[in-house]
């Protein structure tokens, strides 16, 4: 596990740490080729410099975020923000459906919008895959 991500997970309370460790393991396993790091104070995984998945501790839950998730056509994922991101929130590790998570991570690799160049394109997102 990335040491910065381990420190992030270890800083959470017991229940949230369990969720974070589960998410880290599944994301790192399914996106083994991805670069992982703390980005904007949260664990994020990148493919070719493009953010695809990550999680963060919110006040009442842990949010799993997929930057291109609105294009996944998945009912359980909720739209987040004004671009293409979608999220799932957890308050317990038992809520994480590993089959859903694996399917979403597969789609995170296959369906990507170009967030890496969003500033250069003045807020315009282009589909990569």
Automatic annotation (TrEMBL):
YdhG-like domain span: 17-108
Database matches in Pfam families: DUF1801
InterPro entries in alphabetical order: YdhG-like (IPR014922)
Name of the molecule in the record: DUF1801 domain-containing protein
